[in-house]
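Dear support,

I submitted the protein below through the web form. The confirmation email said the job was done, but the results page showed an empty box. After a refresh the structure appeared. I'm attaching both so you can tell me whether what I see now is the final result or a partial one.
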Amino acid sequence: MTAKGRSEGRLSRMMKRTVVVTFALAAMSCRNADSRAATDSTLQRDLALAGQSSAEPQLNDTALTPPQATTPPKAKAPTMSEVAPAQPPFRGIPAGATFALTTKGAICTTNLAGDKITATITADVDGDNGAVIPGGSTVVLEVVQVTPGSTPESATITLRIRSVIVNDQPVAVPSDVSVTSQLERHTMPRDRGADRRKVVGGAVAGAIVGQILGKDTKSTVTGAAVGAAAGAATAAATGTKYDACLPAGGTLRATTREPVPLTATQ
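What the results page shows now:
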């Protein structure tokens, strides 16, 4: 083969290689373009999803985990203090408290039931929670019963407390009252007219008996004398009564029978 022929053969082969390489490059370019397009599409979709997921959570978002079930506490049984308010502590003079009194006037067995006299408390009477009846407080006493006696010792006077004046307010103080000072006892004035009636009545009765028995004046006189003597003895036996008086300044002792409440102003 000549040199010209060999040169043309080489040229033909080079052209063929060039064409093959060109087609290969073109194919590769197409594939790269498709890959970039697919990549761009995937990237845009990921960006869109990322934008949606980055939105701020709303207040009504649900919790990630369900809340734990809790047992409601048991109802507490009401106590007595919740059912009714507590009563304030007692303020006053308790039952069994004793105190002394001094009378301002005299009281005698000649008085009548219901008569009133006054007395004063000799010392403070202390009670509970600051309660006190001051010494010198006025006490109103009432006569319950008076009993003249056939002997000096049997005459009696029974009194009770009507009220005690505490800070110008009357307070009921149920109490037992006893007389602690000596009563002044003396003979009550006799009814002379009643004694005379008893003597005359005895004489008349004696005279009648004498007449029935003796049928003569002497018997009548003797019977009258005996009857008069019996009437006089009866008058002497039944006419003597003894009076008793508790003088002014007499002393008494009172003991409360029940609690005596006092207000804050008493």
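Response: this is the final, complete result; the empty box was a page-load delay. Residues 192-239 form one domain.
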